[in-house]
């Protein structure tokens, strides 16, 4: 059963819908409400509302409502399966908004395109959309500025510019708070924790004996916050994040249980790019639990899931973990092959980080201009 939404933004939208001066204004606000439901993970309710709005738009076509609906459908695609259809739909919303001179839809769609560009590791697209968003944003565009700030914070964090990322994260937090947007706050918390976990995982693979900070508090904070505000979008991601932390802390039994329960769900919802990486982690759990046959099976599954199109740091982490697994299983030649591949992938990742940092600096996106 889904948790009820406790959101100041939802209350504001309901009040605005009730006070709307026309059917068109009410419909546009209802599209925004459906987007909020989507971001909270209430997809069936959002779909029901969007279907009703599409029927209204069919009977009474309007460019502004059409732009809002395309944006809402883009978010629905993103939160359903992270597919490429999301970007196409949001681009259509942006084009319709610009053609109809609807800045409020345009600025939000552009912010989301910056976010989707980051997710797709399209640095050029991220820079272009971020600059376009900042060019038309005004104080009070809380949702757009919060979403853009998350995207740029993540990009700088990815580029190993932690201090600059923190500036954007702080702006995202302020903008989300100003709007009462708990779904965005939840997304910010998850993404920050996920980036810190990825960084610590890299260090744990490179330096297995080095002490590491306890990251469980961050993962658990997301779960508690989501329960408080009724957020459940992609609810399997937080347990998988917790599993990665547990592996780093040597709690292999607990980690393997979380992977077994939540990894198939994530892969079934368009996150198969994570499969190789996390299956390798599960194989390492099996090794440490003395389950050698299962460890070998998961390691081979991880190799099958390796996708050359996935992010280079995910590939590098997968090969590093598989090198450990095969070494523990006595497969020294296979282990060496994975270790050598991991070394090349980590070098490529370092070069990519430097390129991103240089490009973001050159674009003037290191710090918020506002």
Describe the overall structure.
- By secondary structure, the chain is mainly alpha-helical.
- It is 78% helix and 0% strand.
- It has helices at 8-18, 23-39, 43-59, 63-81, 85-99, 103-119, 123-136, 142-158, 162-179, 182-206, 216-229, 237-248, 252-268, 275-288, 292-305, 312-328, 332-362.
- Helix 6 runs parallel beside helix 8 (142-158).
Percent helix, as a range, is: over 70%
Work out the helix count: 17
Cα gyration radius (Å): 22 Å
Give the overall shape, derived from the CA principal axes. elongated
**SSE order in H/E notation?**
HHHHHHHHHHHHHHHHH
Strand segment tally? 0
Compute the average pLDDT.
89
State the distance separating the first and last CA atoms.
42 Å
Low-confidence stretches: 224-232
Strand content: under 5%
Going by helix content, strand content and strand pairing, the class is mainly alpha
Largest sheet: none
């Amino acid at each position: 059963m889904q948790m009820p939404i406790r959101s100041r933004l939802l209350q504001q939208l309901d009040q605005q819908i009730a006070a709307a001066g026309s059917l068109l204004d009410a419909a546009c606000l209802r599209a925004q409400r459906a987007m909020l439901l989507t971001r909270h993970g209430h997809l069936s309710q959002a779909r029901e509302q969007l279907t009703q709005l599409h029927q209204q738009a069919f009977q009474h076509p309007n460019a502004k409502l059409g732009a809002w609906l395309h944006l809402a459908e883009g978010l629905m695609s993103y939160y359903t399966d992270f597919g490429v259809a999301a970007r196409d739909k949001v681009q259509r919303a942006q084009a319709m908004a610009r053609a109809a001179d609807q800045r409020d839809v345009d600025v939000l769609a552009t912010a989301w395109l910056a976010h989707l560009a980051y997710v797709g590791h399209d640095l050029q697209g991220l820079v272009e959309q971020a600059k376009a968003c900042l060019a038309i944003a005004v104080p009070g565009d809380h949702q757009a500025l919060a979403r853009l700030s998350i995207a740029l914070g993540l990009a700088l964090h990815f580029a190993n510019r932690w201090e600059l990322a923190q500036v954007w994260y702080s702006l995202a937090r302020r903008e989300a708070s100003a709007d009462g947007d708990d779904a965005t706050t939840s997304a910010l918390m998850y993404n920050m924790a996920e980036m810190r976990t990825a960084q610590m995982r890299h260090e744990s693979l490179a330096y297995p004996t080095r002490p590491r900070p306890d990251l469980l508090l961050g993962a658990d904070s997301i779960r508690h916050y989501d329960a408080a505000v009724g957020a459940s979008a992609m609810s399997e991601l937080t347990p998988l994040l917790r599993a990665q932390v547990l592996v780093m802390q040597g709690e292999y039994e607990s980690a393997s249980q979380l992977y077994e329960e939540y990894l198939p769900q994530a892969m079934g919802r368009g996150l198969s790019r994570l499969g190789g990486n996390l299956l390798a982690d599960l194989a390492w759990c099996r090794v440490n639990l003395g389950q050698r046959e299962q460890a070998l099976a998961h390691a081979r599954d991880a190799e099958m899931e390796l996708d050359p199109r996935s992010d280079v740091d995910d590939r590098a982490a997968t090969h590093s973990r598989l090198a450990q697994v095969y070494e523990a299983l006595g497969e020294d030649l296979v282990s060496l092959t994975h270790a050598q591949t991991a070394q090349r992938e980590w070098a490529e990742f370092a070069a990519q980080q430097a390129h991103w940092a240089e490009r973001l600096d050159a674009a003037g996106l290191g710090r918020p201009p506002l």
